[in-house]
Amino acid sequence: MKQRQILFTGIRQLEIVENNLPAPGDGQVLVRTEVSLMSTGTENICFNRLFAPGTHWDNWVKYPFEPGYSTVGVVEAIGPNVSAIKVGDRVAHRRGHASAHVVGQDMCNTVPDAVPAEYAAWSALGRITYNGARQVGFHLGDRVAIVGAGPIGQMTLRWAMACGAEESVMIDSMPKRLDIAKKGGATYTLNANVADVKPQIEELLGMLPDVVADATGHQVVFEAALKLVRTQGRMLLIGDTGTPTEQRLTGDVVCRAISIHGAHDGTTYPDRSRDDIAQLFFRLVSSGRFRMDGMNTHWFSPDQAADAYRLANEARGETMGILFRW
């Protein structure tokens, strides 16, 4: 089968290339892509090369670079020793923006019929933010503040509410993103700079939050966000900055006994596999406990890839889920 694929070939440069895919081998399946989701935070950092030399970003982004890691499609063929998946199954997997892929069956998560492909495409970000929810330990009755209403912040909000948070505040300077947060269950939204919101949060919640999540990936936010955590509260650092050495601790960490919890895509658990997490996400979405309405804002064909990345760069406040329809 022919594969059409989006590749980054340099800083702010991309091409669509054609490849010949091999037949699926032992334990592999051929998946024809329906949709793939742009991870706007990660892919903008990669597209613009917004990271310091020597970071894990610098070691990862080599040209030609394959962007994307959240794809949904239909299984077209299976190789030998494939038992968990059959032809015709709809699956989500962790490969980039392309019309088809040959992938190992262990990389695929079967998508229930009740979950539309455009929601299932969020499963990779669902797992990343599950890691954040698990690491920081959202509790019943928690009061939570989230800084940054982009895709990671939106998904973190939804995990917090699914875990039983009593009240939540989403902080961002982009009104359309705050509107999406309200659909996801945010109790309050603040269109403000994080450095200025402490009095407003205390008035809304009656106290500082038990948990503050920094989902921005911007090093300047970290210091201001620490000041919003209640004494002996928890800080979740889930936005992955390209310049981590510029993030600064403050005296709040020691003097007010704040614990900081980092979370990243690669975190694994002995008691819950990656497929377990994907299936949990799908069940919560299909039941309505994890609300996805309003999360997808823009659709593009692969031939419009340059326009899609231009939009993600130049009109960030107008976008949320940017999807390629294959």
Poorly predicted runs are none
Number of strands: 15
Shape: globular
Helical fraction equals 25-40%
Query: Which band does the percent of strand residues land in?
Result: 25-35%
Class by SSE composition? alpha/beta
Radius of gyration from the CA trace?
20 Å
Mean pLDDT across every amino acid position: 96
Determine and state the CATH class of the largest domain.
Alpha Beta
Number of domains as seen in the coordinates? 2
| Biggest sheet record | 7 strands, mixed
Describe the structure.
Strand 11, helix 8 and strand 12 form a beta-alpha-beta unit. Strands 3, 4, 5, 6, 7, 14 and 15 form a seven-stranded mixed β-sheet that branches. The chain has a six-stranded parallel β-sheet with strand order 10-9-8-11-12-13, with helices on both faces. A two-stranded antiparallel ribbon has the order 1-2. The chain is globular and about 60 Å long. The protein contains eleven helices and 15 strands. The mean pLDDT is 96. The protein starts with a strand and ends with a strand. It has two domains: 152 residues, Alpha-Beta Complex (Quinone Oxidoreductase, Chain A, domain 1), CATH 3.90.180.10; 135 residues, NAD(P)-binding Rossmann-like Domain (Rossmann fold, 3-Layer(aba) Sandwich). It is α/β, with parallel strands linked by helices. 30% of the residues lie in helices and 26% in strands. Helix 4 crosses helix 5 and helix 4 packs across helix 10.
